Amino acid sequence: MASFEVIEKVGNNLRCKCIDPGLLLPRAKLTFWRDGKRVGKNFELPTLSAKDWADIDFGISEGVDFIAVSFVRAADDIRNLKDYLATRSSESIKVLAKIESFESLENLEEIIEASNGIMVARGDLGVEIPLEQIPAIQEKITSLCRQLNKPVIIASQLLESMIEYPTPTRAEVADVSEAVRQLADALMLSGESAIGMYSDKALGVLRLASARMEGWCQEERHHNSFVPLQLGTSLPDQIAEQICNSAVEIANNLAVDAIFVYTRYGYMASLLSRNRPYSPIFAFTDIDNTRKALNLHWGVIPIGIELSIDMEENFRRSFGLAEKRGVVQSGDLVLVVSDVTPIDPTTTGALQSLQVRTIA
Description:
Elements: E1 3-10, E2 13-20, E3 33-34, E4 37-38, H1 50-62, E5 66-69, H2 75-87, E6 94-99, H3 102-106, H4 108-114, E7 117-121, H5 122-128, H6 134-147, E8 152-155, H7 170-181, E9 186-188, H8 191-194, H9 199-219, H10 235-254, E10 258-262, H11 267-274, E11 281-285, H12 288-294, E12 300-304, H13 311-325, E13 333-338, E14 353-358
Parallel strand pairs: 5-6, 6-7, 7-8, 8-9, 10-11, 10-13, 11-12
Antiparallel strand pairs: 1-2, 3-4, 13-14
Helix pairs in contact: 2-4, 7-9, 10-11
């Protein structure tokens, strides 16, 4: 928002000359450059301050679903918070890492693996790296999150002009559409909805532009080029991956009307989402935290329902509920996937299945 040239150092202070005038607020983020290159810094300040820990405790007491950590530098920043949540019996709270610093880019893959999801905070990130690198970095983060099966949120300045005006710039609409084309899991408004004069209209524009680009991607079969990495190390996890990879290929080839997945912890629902099928994914679960967390995954519509170890009973309940809500109708073709673990001490592993059903 403003640029200064450092003239001299006076004790612990810097005397500066303003080059590009702008609004300088308290606690503003500062980045230092010399000869066109960013100056590395290590202030040895903790990622989470004492106030942050107090805010986290407040969030735990209020039952929040997600905590987004700003200025993550390494995976340990995320692991330490997860360990703390475990001591407070709050493991159900998902931890998101905000990628908005140069250090986070240097440790990107391990941060993604440690987190439950990623937020690309482009506003602060654009201060840390040259502006022209932002589009390529955004696409790299989005692609890596998809490979590692972690949801990614694109945030900051999507419709910035709508803080003050009722319509966006055409460039902003193009920016939103590009994030959708990159198959990000979610888009997030910030100033537009927090302090904007047209928050409802901004949300409407975001949904309209996203839906149009998603429709175009469907028409052009834009999702076909993805080759998933194998993530599972145990045999059950590897089987689950293969089932979901095959399920999406079958669903696309048969042009099914919907994919139903029965899941307690959301793993196979996330694997289906990772493959970005053309059909909507309806995830049926009996665990409330799973239902809430799955809202963040691309293409997944989570629905709370009582699950049974009797799969036919699950089919009957879910098909009836889906028909009642109008999301499927008689004659529709539905692909069914399940990772529900039988409640039977003699059974090991998950009951992983794949079927194609027609709504009666």
